[in-house]
UniProtKB/TrEMBL annotation:
InterPro entries tied to this protein: 4OHPhenylPyrv_dOase (IPR005956), 4OHPhenylPyrv_dOase_C (IPR041735), Glyas_Bleomycin-R_OHBP_Dase (IPR029068), Glyas_Fos-R_dOase_dom (IPR004360), VOC_core (IPR037523)
Any GO BP annotation: aromatic amino acid metabolic process
A Pfam family assignment: Glyoxalase
Protein name per UniProt: 4-hydroxyphenylpyruvate dioxygenase
Every VOC domain range: 7-142, 171-319
Similarity section: Belongs to the 4HPPD family.
UniProt key word Cytoplasm: no
Reaction catalysis annotation: 3-(4-hydroxyphenyl)pyruvate + O2 = homogentisate + CO2
Keywords of the record: Iron, Metal-binding, Repeat
């Protein structure tokens, strides 16, 4: 079964009672509130930047909101003890057929296909649980809907400050899951089988059978990745599955499992077309980013690599931005059109501090200049920066 899933339509975040995040997302990350739904017990706020939409679900009353099973529209209640990103919504053409196929494959439907309508038209959706931690997926057909967000939500008038603030965020680039030990391969298989995602090799060093194993220097991690069936390698949304291979159980992946209370979404990569300006603007708004170790910029040929890509090593170091060039020969391996660009391909990344009070969920900015993968040096640098941060927290 090859399902026609495209880029996520929204990523849903849940917060426990008395915790909010929507204001923070609006004020510091400058996501624009577009639609809201409020009941006496919950508030659901959709915030958009480019085509990236977060649905922030807040509780307005103590206790479990799930006395009514549909308290949260287009989602289920993960009953969070802490902030968690627990649902990714994908658009599909045929919700009924899709849900039927998933059920015949043994998947559990949390919300059966349901139709909702208002003046803007109608949508059909269902919610299925995934095989990873608390993550569920909303499958949505909104081809018959003309309204600004979804039926059941009230539109919010667009404030004039949404553009021209230097923050260039275009779409969700990737979603990284932390899987339990031994669970990354099963997750990969499930998304290939049930959602029709294709394997994506993160790096030329990756062995398709084993996955991408990062060892040495205190890093013990297995990474496996997929990309959605629709969309080119450069434009589709990727799923990255991370699993700890470390023996001492104190690294960031194990810490996520412990503090999150199980597997789940560790970070979301937001694609930007101008990482330098965007990082600067977000820093001015108070967003805090991980700073890679100073050695990242001074180690073997990094400054030359950065200059070779046409970037300024001092500026990147000052902001904490990581850069990785695609090694020659990498293009063909991932099936990129070799005639696309004669110049060197590279990408730049930067990672925020954890968003909630626990060391769990964070965001990333990624600026792809033709490079579809993830740089090994950058993953190591992020790993190191997170470890330093975690050690400082103790
Ligand atoms: O580089 C990325 O964005 C990744 O998604 C790879 C990754 C996965 C898990 C980590 O704890 C650190 C890096």
């Amino acid at each position: 079964m090859a399902a026609s899933l495209s880029r996520p339509c929204f990523i849903s975040l849940h917060l426990p009672y008395r915790q909010g995040w929507a204001q923070h997302l609006a004020n510091t990350f400058r996501f624009q509130p577009v639609a809201v739904r409020e009941t006496p017990r919950v508030r659901q706020l959709a915030l958009r930047r480019g085509s990236a939409v977060f649905l922030v679900n807040e509780r307005l009353a103590p206790g479990s909101a799930s006395t009514s099973s549909r308290e949260f529209l287009y989602d289920v209640d993960p009953q969070p003890a802490l902030g968690t990103a627990s649902n990714v919504c994908f658009e599909v053409d045929d919700v009924l057929g899709f849900c039927k196929r998933l059920q015949s494959q043994g998947c559990s439907l949390l919300v059966p296909p349901t139709e909702l309508r208002d003046d803007g038209g109608s949508v059909t959706y269902g919610v299925v649980s995934s095989v990873v931690g608390n993550i569920s997926h909303t499958l949505l057909d909104r081809s018959r809907y003309q309204g600004p967000f979804l039926p059941g939500f009230q539109p919010i008038q667009r404030a004039p400050s949404a553009t021209g603030d230097g923050i260039e965020i275009t779409h969700f680039d990737h979603i990284t899951y932390v899987c339990p030990r031994g669970g990354a391969r099963a997750a990969l298989d499930w998304y290939q089988r049930c959602f029709g995602f294709h394997r994506f090799l993160l790096n030329p060093q990756e062995s398709p059978a084993e996955g991408y194993v990062l060892g040495g220097q205190g890093v013990g991690m297995l990474l496996l990745a997929l990309q959605s069936a629709q969309g080119t390698p450069a434009h589709g949304c990727k799923l990255v599955f991370a699993e700890s291979l470390s023996r001492d159980g104190t690294n960031q992946v194990d810490t996520f499992l412990e503090q999150h209370g199980g597997a789940g979404i560790q970070h979301v990569g937001l694609c930007t077309t101008d990482i330098v300006t965007t990082t600067r603007a977000l820093q001015q708004q108070g967003v805090r980013f991980f700073t890679p170790p100073a050695t990242y910029y001074s180690q073997g040929g990094k400054a030359e690599e950065i200059r070779g890509a046409g970037q300024d090593p001092h500026m990147l170091a000052e902001l904490g931005i990581l850069l990785d060039t695609t090694p020659p020969g990498d293009k063909g391996r991932r099936g990129t059109d070799a005639t696309e660009s004669p110049s060197q391909e590279y990408l730049m990344q930067i990672f925020t501090h954890p968003i909630f009070s626990e060391e769990t969920f964070f965001l990333e900015l990624i600026d792809r200049r033709g490079a579809p993968g993830f740089g090994e040096g950058n993953i190591r640098a992020l790993w190191k920066a997170v470890q330093v941060y975690m050690d400082q927290q103790q």
